Amino acid sequence: MNPATTSGFRVTRAGPLALLQDAGRFGVRHLGVTQGGPADIHAWAWANRLAGNRWGSPVLEITFGGLELQAEADLTIAVTGADLSAKHDNQPLPMWRRFRVGKGERLVFGSPANGLRTYLAVAGGFSAEPALGSVACVVREHLGGFDGQGRRLAADDRLTVAAPDPVHSDIVEAPPEEQPDYSTPAVLDLLPGAQISDFFGRSLYDAFNAEWRVDDRADRMGVRLLGPSLHCRIESMVSEGISLGAVQVPPDGQPIALLNDRQTIGGYPRLGNLTPLSASRLAQCVPGQRVRLRPAGMERASREHQAFIRKMTASRT
């Protein structure tokens, strides 16, 4: 074990998808390498904030539950995001707050009760060797994660923890207004895209006034939305770079919102781009859940995102 790390957790049962995620992998899209990082940046950031970690510290993203961990040391942790019916030694696990786990104690994440993705942070952050400057796990690209090869967790894997730095959190529990109810209808802010003027008027009306339903074809690459068919005058276009939250409309007229593990380029016209926090909200929507799109201006969206980053990176005492 690296002398700068300590024991963390042993995986006693692996769920369908548990991945280490730091802030993401940047500066490599020209190589065809995608961003990765947390699908829900809001819950991920709050987990680190409560655990006393700096922005970017690796956190375990747990999708759909089914994961069981045993602590191999006394640890300070925080769990945020979806309610996966989690338990701490057979007792309900406290959410959105910092607490202690003793050596030998177990964390069990069950099935989703509210949302899809839970974030487990430990004081000091999980330790892993970076790949292309990040430990963000992208299974498709065999990059990142606890082993550097993009492998999802399996039984008997061990997660080590970096020694905590002197920074510690000045807050024990997230305020109630920062703890979303993921079962409520989601209103997603969308910045108009370069091709929005090429969509027919009826399609633009439908895009922002109809309810959309989250399809079961949804993963860390993107989420397909089902609803009225949207039509664009553009029949073909040269592929261009794709950003987090881009909403493409393929020929079938059903938009696809692209998330962290998206491809780096795409050739479908774009209705627009979800803001980062709206992309996070969509990542917690279960199949069948209803969402609405709301047009947003760049100035307000930028101001809100900068305020979020400042809050999450504020100095702790």
TrEMBL record:
Organism of derivation: Marinobacter gudaonensis
Species classification: Bacteria, Pseudomonadati, Pseudomonadota, Gammaproteobacteria, Pseudomonadales
Gene3D superfamilies in UniProt: Cyclophilin-like
Domain of life: Bacteria
Domain Carboxyltransferase residues, every copy: 30-308
Classification via Pfam families: CT_A_B (PF02626)
Name the UniProt record assigns to this protein: Allophanate hydrolase subunit 2
NCBIfam families on file: urea_amlyse_rel (TIGR00724)
This protein's record includes keyword Ion transport: no
InterPro entries linked to this entry: CT_A_B, Cyclophilin-like_dom_sf, PxpC
This protein's UniProt keywords: ATP-binding, Hydrolase, Nucleotide-binding
GO molecular function, one term: ATP binding
